[in-house]
Amino acid sequence: MKKMILVSAAIAAFATGALAQQSTVNGAVGGAVTGAIVGGPVGAAVGGIVGAAAGTAIDPPPERVVRYVETQPMPAQSVVVQEQVVVGRPIPQQVVLTPVPEDPTYAYAVVNQQRVIVDPQTHTVVRILN
């Protein structure tokens, strides 16, 4: 039984990764459905929890924020960090962020020659623009 629960949780976590970009509700529902298919009621519960956690971690910014950041001029020099810049992970606190005037819940920076949109409170990357 424990093995079935662990397998259900692993499959649900993998399957809900694609849904994480949508929202918390989609993540929870997607995880519950996947978990139920694989592991029955227990799998549904585990999948729902995993899906909700994944969905909350990475809500994409509104399109108006993306457009704003895309239209800003690139600085002469980009901040260079050793860590790989990944959606869902914070960038170093010493990276100076520029607030998005239309939506102060987002900020951006150019790190390793990439524009990144971040949550200014946590420095967590929510989108990388190429």
Q: What is the structure about, briefly put?
A:
The chain is of the alpha+beta class. It folds into two domains: 2-57, no CATH class; 63-129, no CATH class.
Q: Could you explain the architecture of this structure?
A:
The chain has 130 residues and is α+β, with helices and mostly antiparallel strands. It has two domains: 2-57, no CATH class; 63-129, no CATH class. The chain is 45% helix and 15% strand. Mean pLDDT is 74; it is low at 1-26. Keywords: Signal.
Number of helices: 3
The gyration radius over C-alpha positions equals: 18 Å
| Helix-strand makeup class | alpha+beta
Give the helices and strands as they follow along the chain. HHHEEEE
List the uncertain runs: 1-26
Strand content: 5-15%
Protein name: DUF1236 domain-containing protein
Organism: Aliirhizobium cellulosilyticum
Signal peptide: 1-20
Pfam families: DUF1236 (PF06823)
Helices, strands, pairings?
Blueprint: H1 2-16, H2 24-57, H3 63-71, E1 98-99, E2 107-111, E3 114-119, E4 124-129
Antiparallel strand pairs: 1-2, 2-3, 3-4
Helix pairs in contact: 1-2
Summarize this structure as a short list of keywords or feature phrases.
single chain, 130 residues, alpha+beta, 2 domains, 4-stranded antiparallel beta sheet, 3 helices, 4 strands, 15% strand, globular, disordered N terminus
